[in-house]
Design a protein that fits this description.
This protein has about 190 residues and is mainly alpha-helical. The protein contains seven helices and six strands, in the order H-E-E-E-H-H-E-E-E-H-H-H-H. Strand 1 and strand 2 (about 25-30) form a beta hairpin.
């Protein structure tokens, strides 16, 4: 959620170092190679858990790489700190072997995830598992006041999880049924 919320166009798709909630809301618009690598792997993890689809993973990764290509470097090495909005390196300028090593390890892991992408289903089990995770959080927050519509949504989702869509028509039917059930939930709360 942090990376989805804060690593967007305002920060050139690079993750801010931190977000402070109290005593006032402040975003630290600086990043390091370690932060960048963690953000790239957070996107891959979000894909692996079914929270984002392949296109979103590719778009986020491409946007981050485009920004990384615009960062000033020292003999090919990234400096340790950059302003995420201006993309300028922050003083004092130095290269950290720890942060550079972290980024290298993160990029090697990311590479393996991308090598496996062509063998993955376009839409498959992961998507529905991700929706199921979100449903469990919703039910947990609702407590005893889980509505009939939420329960019905859960029934539809469990049926899909137990009988994987194998054709595009069946997948479309499953998504339409879930969308309709989600609309009923939204109508109940508005």
């Amino acid at each position: 959620s942090f990376f989805e919320t804060f690593a967007g166009p305002a920060d050139n798709w690079l993750p801010p170092d931190n977000y402070q909630e109290n005593p006032v809301s402040v975003i630290a618009h600086r990043t390091s190679p370690t932060n960048i690598g963690l953000s790239l792997l957070a996107n891959l993890s979000a894909y692996d858990f079914g929270y984002i689809l392949t296109g979103e993973l590719i778009a986020r990764t491409s946007s981050a790489f485009n920004s990384m290509n615009r960062l000033a470097r020292y003999r090919g090495h990234f400096f340790n700190w950059y302003d995420t909005q201006s993309l300028q390196p922050l003083k004092p300028l130095y290269v950290s072997s720890v942060d550079s090593g972290n980024l290298a390890g993160h990029l090697l892991t990311l590479k393996q995830g991308f090598i496996n992408l062509p063998d993955q289903s376009i839409l498959g089990h992961r998507l529905f598992e991700g929706i199921n995770d979100t449903l469990h959080i919703l039910k947990e927050k609702a407590g005893k006041s889980v509505t009939v519509h939420i329960a019905q949504f859960g029934k539809y989702l469990n049926a899909i999880l137990n009988d994987q869509p194998v054709t595009l028509d069946y997948l479309r039917e499953c998504l339409e049924k879930l969308s309709s059930a989600a609309d009923e939930n939204l109508n109940e709360f508005t």
